[in-house]
Write a structure and sequence with these properties.
Elements: H1 3-10, E1 15-16, H2 23-26, E2 30-35, H3 44-58, E3 62-67, H4 71-74, H5 89-107, E4 113-116, H6 118-121, H7 126-132, H8 139-142, H9 146-152, H10 161-164, H11 166-181, E5 185-189, H12 193-207, E6 212-216, E7 230-231, E8 234-235, H13 245-253, H14 257-267, H15 272-284, H16 290-304, H17 306-321, E9 338-339, E10 345-346, H18 347-353, H19 360-368, E11 372-374, E12 377-378, E13 383-384, E14 391-396, E15 400-405
Parallel strand pairs: 2-3, 2-5, 3-4, 5-6, 9-15
Antiparallel strand pairs: 1-6, 7-8, 10-13, 11-12, 11-14, 14-15
Helix pairs in contact: 11-12, 13-16, 13-17, 14-16, 16-17
Length: 406
């Protein structure tokens, strides 16, 4: 499958300045894709962008993965109703290093070059920036952009010169990478279309050269209509300290039937023949949840490694069946273990004392709504007997697990 065909089949192109994607079939280009460093971890939304990069790399195109070391200090106003809080240089530097580790893990041994836009902006004077970059941008054009117009319009929160300048910085990034690496393609999210075009325009005006942009579609949960990657508790992070491996696995496992079929094409490297068979088998028996299982295992393996994926799979199967007996002793659940040495236990006092549940009232509320279980069986009493074995699994709701050792 050619890259133009694969990008189309996977549904990875929203807008592009290319007249025809088949240009990429016969012309190997150097492209760049930037990542934000305003948080200490990337999310599954960022993972979608990484997967697009891997498509290009597989087809022989050269990848420049850009850390927003300087642009994250300024703050991207896109999609924000108010000014982003300023973060320290040290915080952004830490976030960049964390993101690099996650990206390197996902890309594995695939070839790419990591760059940081702080390297070419930190020593640039304000006068140099105004003369070399600002001179080529029209205020009239900039204030027409949706995110700026919204902030400046009636009822808007306004916009500082700092965030107003973000688009110029992104345009300068493209110019620098064009001059340094002969980079002629930028990949970005659909909300970055105007910012990406800033670089295209700047390169055309300063260098008389033609460069291009491809933006990715916004990924929507078809069951809810909401932006993908968000849950009631917030973003789904790639850092297991922020989203546990088990919760990460469960997130994918719980996707709806229709969306999961799209996500498999976006978030895994499955080939079309295998995909067609997977979907056909799934449609023959949707209760099998074959697509969700494939998705959950393979994305978890990509982000957290095979060992963690196997553990999360075993946990998920145990939760579904209520049989925890086959889970390896070394398998850790989503929370720390709780150790007990006595015989029969008044579980109410134990879990409140250990702050597993915040109060006795909350415990009784969960108990009456069948929200507590032991070894997969619904808890009906405030006292549990010592098990035949040395341990049991205490479960609160659907996602919180505690190993009780006797």
């Amino acid at each position: 499958m050619k890259i133009s065909e694969e990008l189309t089949w996977r549904g990875l192109v929203q807008q592009t300045t290319l007249k025809d994607l088949t240009y990429l079939d016969t012309n190997k280009v150097t492209f760049y894709h930037g990542f934000d460093a305003s948080a200490p971890s990337q999310t599954v939304g960022n993972l979608a962008a990484m997967m697009v990069d891997l498509v290009f790399i597989r087809h022989g195109h050269k990848a420049l993965i850009l850390a927003g070391g300087s642009t994250s200090l300024v703050g991207d106003p896109g999609g924000k109703d108010t000014e982003r809080p300023m973060q320290t240089v040290e915080t952004i530097a830490y976030n960049v290093e964390q993101a690099k580790k996650q990206i390197q893990k996902v890309y594995g041994d695939r070839p790419f070059t990591l760059v940081n836009n702080l390297d070419w902006t930190k020593d640039m004077t304000a006068l140099e920036f105004l003369r070399e970059v600002g001179k080529y941008f029209s205020i009239g054009d900039l204030i027409k952009r949706d995110y700026i117009a919204t902030r400046l319009g009636e009822g808007g929160a306004g916009i500082s010169y700092t965030e107003f300048s973000y688009s110029l910085l992104q345009g300068f990034d493209y110019l620098h990478l064009f001059e340094t690496y002969n980079c002629t393609l930028q990949i970005g999210g659909s909300d970055q279309w105007a910012n990406c075009l800033s670089g295209v325009d700047l390169i055309r005006k300063k260098k008389g050269a033609e460069t291009h942009v491809i933006t990715l579609p916004l990924i929507i949960n078809k069951a809810t209509g909401k932006k993908f990657g968000k849950s009631e508790g917030g973003a789904i992070w790639l850092d297991e300290e922020k989203t546990s491996v088990f919760d990460f696995y469960q997130f994918w496992l719980n996707t709806d039937d229709e969306s999961s079929q799209d996500y498999v094409k976006i978030f895994t490297e499955i080939e079309k023949e295998e995909y067609d068979k997977l979907v056909a088998d799934f449609n023959a028996d949707k209760s099998s949840r074959l697509v969700q299982k494939y998705l959950a295992y393979n994305v978890t393996k990509l982000v957290h490694g095979e060992e963690n994926a196997n553990k999360a799979k075993a946990q998920a199967e145990a939760v579904f069946s209520g049989d925890f007996s086959n889970i390896p002793a070394e398998n850790t659940f989503a929370v720390e273990d709780t150790y007990i040495v006595d015989g029969n236990v008044k579980i109410l006092d134990l879990v409140v004392d250990k702050k597993i549940i915040e109060s006795k009232g909350k415990f009784r509320e969960l108990l009456s709504s069948n929200g507590l279980s032991v070894d997969g069986k619904t808890l009906t009493d405030i006292v549990i007997a010592k098990p035949e074995g040395a341990e049991m699994i205490f479960q609160v709701g659907k996602k919180r697990f505690y190993k009780l050792t006797f």
